[in-house]
Request: fold
Amino acid sequence: MKRCIALGVFLVLTAAPAIARAQGSAADEAALRDSLTQYVAAWNASDAAKMETFYTDDATEVNTWGMETKGRAAIVKGFAEAKASDDFKGSKIAVTVTTIRFIRPDVAVSHGTYTVTGGKMPPEGLKGHYQTVDVKQGGAWKTATLHLAAMPPTPPPAQE
Reply:
């Protein structure tokens, strides 16, 4: 019994520094939230030049329909084309952050929900979930991966 307790204490004490290193600072969390606020403002203003500042060079985006786009330039081009289309022209996005989890002090995973209204969206809007992997580069947070999923998700197939 004493060995089990000693082992448990040892594991907690040796794991604590690793856990502490994975935690981001309050300032980093605030910076991520601010970046998201700026992203929403850029989307709503159809500002492709500003959208370019949010992604790493090699970023990947999977949109609501499962189409993958690789590279910041391609993502921003797709954004500009979408916002110019009848489907998204004049559309606005609202985003709610659910969680931000720091994998390392310079890597974070964020989850949340979004709603796109306007354009040719249904009256209730296009709703979905998002997940990002963000990395700190040169003191600024950039999105390396953005994955969108429609809400509510499609139910899984029936079990046989």
Observations:
- The longest helix spans residues 2-22.
- DSSP finds four helices and six strands in the chain.
